[in-house]
Amino acid sequence: MTSPENEEQPMTAVADARPTYLDRTEWTVDDLKDLPEDLNYELVNGRLILPSPTFTHQEIAIRIKLALDEHCPQTHVVSTDQSIAIDNANEPRPDVVVMPVEHIDVSPVPVAGSLLAVEVVSASQSVREMVDKAQAYAIAEIPHYWIIDTHDDQLSLSELTLDPSDGQYKMGKATVGVFKTEQPFPVTIDLPALSTRYAKLRARAGR
Q1: Which residues contact 15 (CB under 8 A, 6 or more apart)?
Q2: Beta strands per DSSP E along 33-186
């Protein structure tokens, strides 16, 4: 005879085990205290996003960080996957951010004084997510925003600069070649080399 302990649990029990925070559609910074402490999350335009980046996504972000580290001013540091506090509806985690050095032991990092946010766009991210992040970074007055696109075999970088006259980002350089800029400080990123490295990783994985 099957004991009650071994009986299959009804579907309602499975449903009850689902975290209740997954059913919430509108979030504020104050609501984040309800989340598990070890959960990675982003709050973008009142929407909770639970990122799950791949190895190659993280690898590209690290390579961008290393390129930025070379000439980063002493007043700032380059960090990856760092939560930044913008307003009550936005606490995103840019893949790379150039932030004031005085915030190295603070999380989330106050956004004031940040020079650059970088997002590495993967296939799992939606257009809406990228638009919402651009709006959040513009609200925060981060002067420079880069988008690294990994959808094609060649990585591309789009440089956006905040226009103080209307508080919106304006498109600057967009390239799949070697990217060079003087803003927010001198940086050179060899995108073809990164594309080759990315392709080799995919080949090793049988992709």
Answers
A1: none
A2: 42-44, 47-49, 76-80, 84-85, 96-100, 109-110, 116-121, 144-149, 156-163, 168-175, 178-181
In contact, 68 and 96? CB cutoff 8 Å: yes
d(CA 95, CA 125): 13
Instruction: State which amino acid sits at residue 173.
Output: K
Query: What DSSP letter does each residue of 138-171 carry, written as one string?
Result: HHTT-SEEEEEE-SSSS-EEEEEEEETTTTEEEE
Question: pTM above the 0.85 mark?
Answer: no
CA 173, 179, 180, 183 dihedral sign is: positive
CB 65, CB 122: distance < 8 Å: no
What's the mean per-residue pLDDT of the chain?
85
Phi first, then psi, for residue 98 (nearest 5°) are: -100, 110
